[in-house]
Amino acid sequence: MKPLKNDTLLRALKRQLTEYTPVWAMRQAGRYLPEYRAVRAKAGSFMALATNPELACEVTIQPLRRFDLDAVIIFSDILTIPDAMGQGLFFAAGEGPKFKKIIQTPADIEALPVPDPMDDLRYVMDAIALTAKTLAGAVPLLGFAGSPWTLATYMIEGGSSKNFARSKAFLLNQPAAAHQLLDKLAQATVAYLAAQIDSGADAVQVFDSWGGVLSPAMYREFSLPYLQQIVTGLRQAGYAETPVILFSKGVHGSVLGDMAASGAHALGVDWTTDMNEARQLTADKVALQGNLDPCVLYADDAVIRREVQQVLNAYGEGPGHVFNLGHGMHPDMAPEKLGVMVDAVHELSRK
Amino acid sequence: MKPLKNDTLLRALKRQLTEYTPVWAMRQAGRYLPEYRAVRAKAGSFMALATNPELACEVTIQPLRRFDLDAVIIFSDILTIPDAMGQGLFFAAGEGPKFKKIIQTPADIEALPVPDPMDDLRYVMDAIALTAKTLAGAVPLLGFAGSPWTLATYMIEGGSSKNFARSKAFLLNQPAAAHQLLDKLAQATVAYLAAQIDSGADAVQVFDSWGGVLSPAMYREFSLPYLQQIVTGLRQAGYAETPVILFSKGVHGSVLGDMAASGAHALGVDWTTDMNEARQLTADKVALQGNLDPCVLYADDAVIRREVQQVLNAYGEGPGHVFNLGHGMHPDMAPEKLGVMVDAVHELSRK
Q1: Omega before A291 within 30 of 0, i.e. cis
Q2: Considering only CB atoms, which chain B residues are within 8 Å of A273?
Q3: 3-state DSSP assignment of residue A206
Q4: CB distance from B254 to chain A under 8 Å?
Q5: Among partner residues A172, A250, A326, which is closest to B303 by beta-carbon distance?
Q6: Searching chain A, which residue's CA lies closest to the CA of residue B310?
Q7: In degrees, to the nearest 5, what angle opens at C-alpha B20 toward C-alphas B15 and B26?
Q8: Per-residue confidence at B236, pLDDT binned at 50, 70, 90?
Q9: CA A77 to chain centre
Q10: What is the mean pLDDT of residues B31-46?
């Protein structure tokens, strides 16, 4: 492994001092970039793109050619693990992800295999290895996975959901089966993220995209313990030095404090919690990543700069801030707006 | 006006002692009830139902025939005010509300009239008067309106929105025009709610359904001041004794404390904030309404009872709790589940 030329992100994730606030953006590789759309069209489908290491590497690196980013994140999908468990992931046109099989009974969960990432998810590892080699240490490469609860929602609902009625009813009515499913997913995720690190990922993020739809009590019972299991599992497997970022979108208040005690290096924070409040809740136990409202990128450049300054001010003094959006880029955003944000973060955060 | 036979809700909203915790449910009049669907089919369309005082009265009272509720809420829609401003509300099949006109420029806002509720929204007042007469004091009748920010989102987006890209960009790029729009909507809402009270509403709720999509800073600039304007406007117009409930769905943390200082009698709380935490944040300055996750009504009866007990425990001792869901009933819910919840609240909250 070549040493990193720019390790600002990794130092910030470990709450070490940096010369400026590092920045990347969720979904920075994606549809808002015309060069992404061209590769996606060539691949033919989302899954054809995600499972082709050369093309996945290409779209991962595309945003780095345009913007002065401090990290790239491997192009993939959170639903690779349930797919590798045999659930049959597919994307219906204009409808988002769907699964051919739906989890309904304890027997369905009992039958789920825990995939071997180096075998069943080889395409992800190959994409990471190729991207790490191509980057040649320019910036850190982030790996990622979905959280057990978030993956479980798709597996129980059969796809995306508006109200999470089926998955919440499953937790409430069949808690033992739910815990078995979440435990299997956490085991699979530890192995998956360990393999990503072995393949060249410098840090990993767990996307708990639907953590915030649970009440705090249900979050503490059904999501947080499995995030904890992933953090602890990676540490026990010898990956204690690789930063882990937990992002439970929509989670706020005292739950952020509980997350900070999980042993993770950093927490993602969405834009509905002020960074100052997030910092108080987490008591500087972790680095914090965020949290500009993505919709600010629809605004005029001067407004973007002002709002970047507000987020930097809200975080305040001291190490441990990674700048990011509070959620992903939208497909209809103008690419140059991300450049305005990135440059503003660098310029305004330098002392 | 006949005296109320059951004024438990009003006493709880004023933080007076009650014999038990009063309970109602958002969207308790709605599609999950077969008798509602029958009236809706007879009316032909949602707007035909909402603008017919006899039918609106009928569906308002329907849930009271099934469940031991402590309040009913007038059947109407939050978008009546923009419609009365001439924006042309209509409902496309399966697509939610839409407006024929879209707010794009300061001139569009300048041209908006402030409606006279007794004239332009007479159908709402007639429905309230008829419902109050029909109830004959059985339980309190709630009136309601949408918050200025929430109404503005529909007027700027032209309907529902996923990301609120246009409306947020409008706030950021054209703040003076946005403030003018929000001020006009607040003025209209004060007159509208005052007319509802004059017509027979015993308390009113302001639904800030999209308050929670704003960052705390933007919420404090573009939503909260106009909720405040409504509360203050009603008090100055002589309605200080009528309880006002503010419900900004998705709003949490220190912002709840700011809302508690608005002079409103009560705040709605969604299920993502623990009632105990909400109570600490609001320091018993206001009553709190909520906050069972609606999806709990998909669970087994014993689970519903257990989760009701958890919400009651989380609120804890002392007056000022109005039990409700953290959001509205869903159309696919089994009606009898609401009965399980209502009975559990009454039984478990009696000392």
Answers
A1: yes
A2: 216, 252-253
A3: strand
A4: yes
A5: A172
A6: A217
A7: 75
A8: very high
A9: 10
A10: 96
Domain-located, residue B3: no
Task: Reply yes or no on whether A31 is catalytic.
Answer: yes
The answer to whether residue A2 sits within a structural domain is no
Return residues 297-336 of B near A (CB < 8 Å): 298-300, 303, 307, 310, 326, 330, 332
Quote the pLDDT of residue A3: 83
**Is A1 inside a domain boundary?**
no
Cβ–Cβ contact A249 with B under 8 A: no
What is the extent of the structural domain holding B320?
8-349
Taking only the tens place, the pLDDT of each residue in B312-344 is: 999 999 999 999 999 999 999 999 999 999 999
Nearest by CB to residue B299, choosing from A172, A250, A254, is: A172
- Residue B221 to chain A, least CA–CA distance (Å): 14
In the structure encoding, which two tokens stand for residue B131, read together? 């419902």
Q: What burial class does residue B5 get, using C-beta atoms within 10 Å of its C-beta: 0-12 exposed, 13-18 middle, 19+ buried?
A: exposed
Residues of B in contact with A326 (CB under 8 A): 215
Identify which of B197, B219, B194, B207 has the alpha carbon closest to the alpha carbon of residue B324: B207
Query: For residue B326, what is the nearest residue in chain A, using CA coordinates?
Result: A215
Place of tokens 């975080």: A315
Say how many CB pairs under 8 Å bridge A and B. 108
In a domain, A3, yes or no: no
Residues of chain B neighbouring A312 (CB-CB closer than 8 A): none
Q: Which of A172, A297, A333 to mutate to test the interface with B (most CBs of B within 10 A)?
A: A172
Q: Give A93's contacts (C-beta < 8 A, 6+ positions apart).
A: none
Instruction: Render the burial of A87-103: b for 16+ CB within 10 Å, e for the rest.
Output: bebebeeeeebbbebbb
What's the pLDDT score for residue A182? Answer: 98
B271 interfacial to chain A (CB closer than 8 Å): yes
CA distances from B226 to A263, B13, B116 (A): 42, 21, 19
At A29 the pLDDT is 97
Contact A217 B332 (CB under 8 A): no
Let me know: does A165 contact A158? Beta carbons within 8 Å.
no
Q: Is ipTM > 0.90 here? A: yes
Nearest-CA residue of chain B relative to A302? B173
Query: Number of structural domains, chain A?
Result: 1
Per-10-residue mean pLDDT, chain A, length 351: 88 98 98 98 94 98 98 97 97 88 97 96 98 97 98 97 96 98 98 98 98 98 98 98 98 97 98 98 97 98 98 97 97 98 98 71
Strands A203-208 and B96-99: unpaired
Q: How far apart are CA B136 and CA B139, in angstroms?
A: 8
pTM of the predicted model as reported, rounded to 2 decimal places: 0.97
Task: Give me the pLDDT at residue A151, please.
Answer: 98
CATH number of A13's domain: 3.20.20.210
